[in-house]
Specification:
The complex is a heterohexamer, with three copies of chain A and three copies of chain B. Chain A has three helices and no strands. By secondary structure, chain A is mainly α. Chain B is an all-alpha fold. The longest helix of chain B is centred in the C-terminal third of the chain and has 31 residues, at 282-312. The relative contact order of chain B is 0.19. Chain C binds chain D through residues 99, 102-103, 105-106, 108-110, 112-113, 115-117, 119-120, 122-124, 126-127, 134-135, 138-139, 205-209, 212-213, 216-217, 220, 224-225, 245-246, 249, 359, 362-363, 366-367, 370-371, 374-375, and chain D through 1-2, 4-5, 7-9, 11-12, 14-16, 18-20, 22-27, 29-31, 33-34, 37-38, 42-43, 45, 47-48, 51-52, 54, 84. The complex binds sodium ion (3 copies). The site of one sodium ion has 9 residues of chain B, from α20.
């Protein structure tokens, strides 16, 4: 009985210690990460936006192609892009 | 006539035990609370109905090859359903407020004191001979104080499946009762002036920070506490799908169809543990009582921690947001907002409370991993 | 060359039996009826394609570790898929018209006479030595008359899995043929004047009644006929999710993604029972013939019951709506509407037919529970 | 053979009896339920509507808060409410 | 203290092997490529995260009763997940361009030369003693050249499950690298004038042709190569649901919720094969090298075949579209379009490339069926 | 060793032969199918459209029924049609 209570008490100490240490470390790590991101301008909106540019956005755009062509290709691409890669 | 006899013997009237009848009433009560009082309806409607089905005599829905028993074996005994729900919750969670103010993670840590105090309480009751819980059972009961349904179900399934029904009911009931349980404690531990503290507006958080955070969290888990990896891993996976911006169709399905389907089956599977034999015991009463203690201590610990942090903090922290550290997402954050508005009608604490609120999810998953590792789940 | 031999021996041309070839033609016919003629396409497209796959020689898709066989074992042998479909149907069903005029439940009772007459017919054919059905098989065949696919599949899976393919094909084929089978019977048993009867408009039904009804129904099942609890329990659960208003996201997923996914796999799983060996037998012809009898008798019983009730009813009942009591939701109700409009172009019976239509679902589930209990499923 | 037919006949009698009794009882029970609901005005639309009011609707509304604040909180809450409870 | 010891011994720092650490870095690299570089994100995010989870020491997520191992057993070992994905891809595929110009099927055939050349390469490396692949393993590696993820996973699961992780990584990595691998090969094998060829506009294809085509394809498989029936059967089933017009709700769910859910679990399951022990071997390097060869040879074969066909064709074929015959849907078709526009800014080849693109899916499934039959999967 | 390479070579021959034969046959079969469909006018849009007419479209339409009635029935049917057949 006493043994059970004792191991419970020990578990409580270790447990709260672990939870606190873990989350405190997470505070530090998170703050460092944010500092790096902000310091090196990695979070600048253009950059983030860039990060999200998909292949579709890199499609060729030549000045000569007519609006009609562009529309046609857009429709075709749109249909096509719905297919997730195999 | 033989067939008429068979018909009568097969009827519920002939077979029903008093316990089953009582459990049907309890299940109906859960449904009433869920539907009329909005107590965690997503879970209490499904658990309550599962409880109804499980106590129909002779139907054998919750035993053998019955559907609810199969659901339990496939989804809960394996831990799959709570983990998938956690993935879905990850896909629904915005870590923005937490990233804007990472120190609120400590509030999520403090509130987990409810877990360990309750564990000690359960063992104390056993030491006194009032109850008879072993260490695993006490640990599973303590997790009720984490105020996260899937975490509680996951841990109970590993450490004390025989108590799963009672633990799930306690967890969701108290999560539903958060608007009643927490405010008095919050008011008792704070002054009107403290409750009126206006916090500085949170900064904008960049997409990159949001993408990196779940990976950082997972790496920390991997290096320090691998036993928390199943829960936090799936949580971080869901969150990464949400934030990374390149798998939006997967994230969308995860937080809608997938989490909905699994919620239905999780509820029915938990309900299968509401059979009269296993639920109507003294242990259940003990668990309900201990669960209430767990919530109260967790709330108090969070508030007190916030007051402590205020002594050292440059920017003032409204101690009410510590109460959100128990998790009970999103109800506890709403309660904080409400109590804050009572003290200062221009003081909207909701966003500030969301940081500790999701921190509480992380905190109780950490506690759960530890319990499973140490008590040998 | 060895490899060329192996290639030839592995080809369908070398391996295909005449039975498999015939089953491929039958499967293509089912697909044609489903696609070109709209015969119950949700089921006949999936079952038909499953039948195609199951008769490809050497592919072993419907045996051993083949996908269709695994689907069958996991979802149909356990009863899980029909029960989940029933939950979905519950989430799609509006009991409003039934609650506005509960007496139409009796029409749903009467139409189940088709089930029991067919059971007797199957046993009669066996007594005459034409067929060789035992009591369980006869009960499973009778349920075709219930005109509910999931109920028929659930019962056949329990009582006569060896007949499942034929029973499912018969059930869905006749449900698809309802617009052809029912009208002559309906016209033969009614006068033009009876068919022209205009019924009083149905009252509005309150939300509370709609919430309480599925619970009442389940409690009645629990106390009187627990063996019907799996089917009706899941049906009521789906309906409660629909009506209770607090778990809309679960109800929405249940009646869309979930029922759709399970329908696909249910169809493929049933199709796995269309292998030539088990399907191309005299029993199948007997089942198809008996199924037609079952539908006809059910329709007639419903119409006659409505005429009987009309003798005692204050508000006149158009006897056509009795035909909807076989269920075959929603086709039978539409047929009633159509035949009614022929007699009186201002007489819209659709809403009135929806009461007996869903009553028929309850009625055949009750009959199914009874069969399972008595013949020891 | 005769025995099989006989038990089939018996099953038919019992079966139709059960189906009819069950659904007839359901008629009575349903009518009683509706009577109670309508008699005691439980179905009055306001009441039913009330029954459906969620926690979100009970949020504080003070006369002084600016429209801006209300909008801000609405957006926050909306985002937040999408999270189903854990 | 005992517990502190236990905590330390249970930590990742105490248990992690160098291999696990390396695999965590590799998994992070996959995530980086998927998120920042958009390399097949649907698969590389899920596989990469699965790889992370699988290399957390002591968490046992990818072994025993761990979630990822259960997913692997249930969904990949049985072949169910790749087949369901194939059904979903069928429901997403428009055979219109192929039906408008069926001769492009031959381009899809030619590109499969990459598969068999790679198989020979793998056996050659073994003959030289550099590697040690048997026939089954060589066949599974060759299928990387098919440039279809589900086909590669299905075949690897049957023939060489021990290589599944490496094969899947190679397949998806090279599919992601298609925009880098293919253009130089395409340019080297064609003249500027050939690349500028404008093809005649494709005719409209009727609904009936689109409905009949998947059935025709399946019948051909059934009669000639039944071992390809699981893959092509599910593909045709999905496509029939899409085109037949009467089960739109099933098709819609198949190409959204269902394929999304299965993609998530497929990715996690494949990721469970990225454990350091099984992945960090010389074989993996060999597989990566051979996979690159397979893609290059497949691309070249497709282009050369198109040039050959041009000698006999009335309507000129732009040889670039041959490169789309490897499949890698839809990336390869987009690459064709891009390279074509470089040569002639008015030349939109996308629709023309879609024919060989889906033909490549059929071609590699045929090759897969053959491999499984002959090497005895 | 040599045996393995040899069987690999054989597999390559048979394999490419099979893939080509299969897809070439598919070309012929597909072209024939399209020829039949186009030849016999099975693809005419009205026909195809017809093919897609569901039961709902065959519902009675009498000249006398008022627009109101039609609206009512449309609503009812619409609700009803959402129910997939049992
Ligand atoms: Na918590
Ligand atoms: Na029925
Ligand atoms: Na391919």
């Amino acid at each position: 009985m006493g043994g059970l209570l004792e191991s419970g008490f020990e578990l409580m100490m270790i447990g709260m210690g672990t939870v606190f240490s873990f989350l405190a470390l997470l505070v530090v790590v998170t703050q460092s990460m944010s500092w790096v991101v902000l310091k090196f301008g990695l979070a600048s909106d253009p950059h983030v936006a860039n990060l999200r540019l998909g292949a579709a956005d890199k499609l060729p755009s030549t000045s000569k192609q007519s609006a009609q062509h562009v529309a046609a290709i857009a429709v075709a691409l749109d249909t096509h892009l719905r297919t997730p890669p195999l | 006539m033989d067939l008429l006899d068979q018909l009568w013997n097969g009827s519920g009237l002939a077979q029903m035990t008093f316990g089953q009848f009582a459990m049907i009433l309890i299940s109906l009560l859960l449904l009433y609370l869920a539907i009329a009082k909005k107590f965690e309806p997503l879970l209490l409607v499904t658990i309550g109905f599962g409880g109804l089905l499980s106590n129909i005599p002779g139907a054998e829905i919750a035993t053998g090859n019955g559907l609810l028993h199969l659901i339990y074996e496939v989804g809960i005994e394996t831990g799959a359903f709570p983990l998938i729900i956690f993935m879905g919750v990850g896909a629904l969670t915005d870590f923005g407020p937490l990233l804007a103010n990472p120190k609120t993670l400590l509030l999520g840590a403090a509130a987990q004191f409810g877990i360990f105090a309750t564990l000690l309480g359960a063992l104390g009751l056993s030491a006194l001979g009032v109850m008879d819980f072993d260490l695993k059972q006490a640990a599973a009961i303590g997790i009720i104080g984490g105020a996260d349904g899937p975490t509680a179900i996951f841990v109970a399934g590993k450490l004390a499946p025989e108590l799963l029904g009672a633990i799930a009911i306690a967890a969701y009931s108290y999560m539903a009762l958060v608007p009643i349980i927490q405010p008095p404690i919050m008011r008792a531990l704070t002054t009107e002036k403290e409750r009126g503290i206006v916090m500085v507006q949170l900064r904008e958080v960049s997409t990159l920070e949001k993408i990196v955070f779940p990976l950082l969290l997972l790496l920390l888990v991997a290096f320090l506490l691998p036993s928390a990896a199943p829960l936090l891993g799936m949580f971080c996976f869901g969150n990464l799908m949400r934030e990374c911006g390149v798998v939006e169709r997967l994230a969308e399905t995860t937080r809608t169809s997938l989490i909905n389907v699994v919620t239905i089956f999780l509820g029915l599977g938990v309900g299968s543990k509401l059979g009269a034999d296993s639920f109507l015991t003294a242990e259940t009463l003990g668990i309900l009582a201990l669960g209430m203690v767990a919530f109260s201590i967790g709330t108090a610990s969070g508030v007190l921690m916030a007051k402590l942090m205020n002594l050292f903090s440059a920017n003032p922290i409204n101690p009410l947001i510590g109460a959100a550290g128990v998790s009970a997402v999103p109800m506890a954050a709403r309660v904080v907002n409400k109590v804050g508005l009572e003290a200062n009608s221009q003081n909207f604490l909701l966003m500030h409370a969301m940081g500790p609120n999701v921190a509480g999810v992380i905190g109780s998953a950490v506690a759960a991993g530890l319990m499973i590792m140490i008590t040998g789940g």
